Amino acid sequence: MPIKIHVTKETILDGLQKVQNIVSSRTTLPILSNVLIQADKDGLCLTTTDLDVGVRCRIDAEVTKQGSTTLPARKLFSLLREVPTADIDLDVDDKNAASIRCGSSFYKIMGLPEAEFPRFPQAEGGKALKMEQNTLHNLLKRTAYAASNDETRYVLNGVFMSFKADKLTVVATDGRRLALAEADVEVAPGSEIEFILPTKAVAELQRLLADKGEAKLTIRENQIIMDLGSTILVSKLIEGTYPNFRQVIPTEAKERVNLERDPFLGALHRASILASEKTQSVKLNFGKNILTITATTPDVGEAKETLVINYKGKEINIAFNPLYLMDPLRSLDADEVIMELTDDLSPGVLKINAPFLYVLMPMRLN
Questions:
Q1: 221-238 pLDDT, tens per residue?
Q2: Given this model, what pLDDT does residue 125 score?
Q3: Contacts of the segment 296-301: beta carbons below 8 A, 24+ positions apart
């Protein structure tokens, strides 16, 4: 269907930026490389999908001819990003050929008919929940990095979310570490639900969530629809049973030590540079009011960092993968973290003064 619109460069680039991330350049279906453009009296609606995850956003535009088409998403974005003028005129004929005029420049891009584009689901039926966008963003930021990339452990390739008893619990684990964060949210009677959101949808959601505003969630069968105001994200959910994560959380620890997050993270980062690529391990020695962090690689060299801490407990030597220990420290904004330890073979637990914990398996000391 023919379209005629006038739009500012900034507005259309902002919209394409929101939707183009999930477009794959290596798809067997050409239509999945395209963005669906629907022009109506209220402006433009842009939609992309890879059949598992879909994103739709609405932008302002002057529409003189209402209609719809699909155009190559990444080519369109790359082109419009480079045009020198602030105003863009887009004219699409009935053969889905788009003429783009920007000042004295002219371009033509061939599209595909809207009829070939997969249908975008509507948020009807299912369980409905709502929460603040920044609450959801914080929970995902504190946990998502711990999800597994190992495709053989499919149920761990995502983030587990449980809405129960007016609380949202978010968990991610790859079997070697586990991150858990919670927040109070309103869960209406009959809306209690648990599901696993795939990693790709989590990454998109983290990009799209705003600092303010509400997120409305609709969950039905094997699908979630998240309405974020001007943007909607849909995703398939991971089928399967998430492992019982509560049983791997240590119930008590022998020693507790408070650490300043920034100096601890800095010392770990510097020591990790000289950690062996093969073993990826740094050793932490907790002594009287001193934490010594060491890393040694025979052919490369060694690192030794010393931090003054408030610690009166028994001496503990324990080794961790520095990358796994730095992940939560980077995602938290607390000034202080609490580390709970039992011995060199038991998991270490990282906590803050908020509903969050991180369990990390130690590495063998050689």
A1: 899 999 999 999 999 999
A2: 81
A3: 300/274, 300/276, 301/274
Name residues whose C-beta falls within 8 Å of residue 175's C-beta, 6 or more positions apart in sequence.
148, 153, 156
**Rounded Cα gap, residues 178 and 347, in angstroms:** 10
337 confidence band (pLDDT: 50, 70, 90): very high
Distances (CA, A) of 153 to 97, 111, 157, 246: 44, 39, 7, 19
**Whether the model pTM is above 0.85:** yes
| H and E: helices and strands count for the chain | 6, 25
Complete DSSP assignment for 280-300: --EEEEEETTEEEEEEEETTT
Burial of 190 (0-12, 13-18, 19+ CB in 10 A): exposed
Compute the distance between CA of residue 23 and CA of residue 90 in angstroms, rounded to an integer: 22
- The per-residue pLDDT for range 233-282, each reduced to its tens digit, is 999 999 999 999 999 899 888 999 999 999 999 999 999 998 887 778 99
Token match 């993270």: residue? 265
Identify the three-state secondary structure at position 57: strand
Cβ–Cβ < 8 Å for 56, 46 = yes
Residue 151: what pLDDT? 86
Among 133, 146, 215, 136, smallest CA distance to 183 is for: 136
DSSP character for 97? E
How many whole angstroms separate alpha carbon 184 and alpha carbon 173?
A: 22
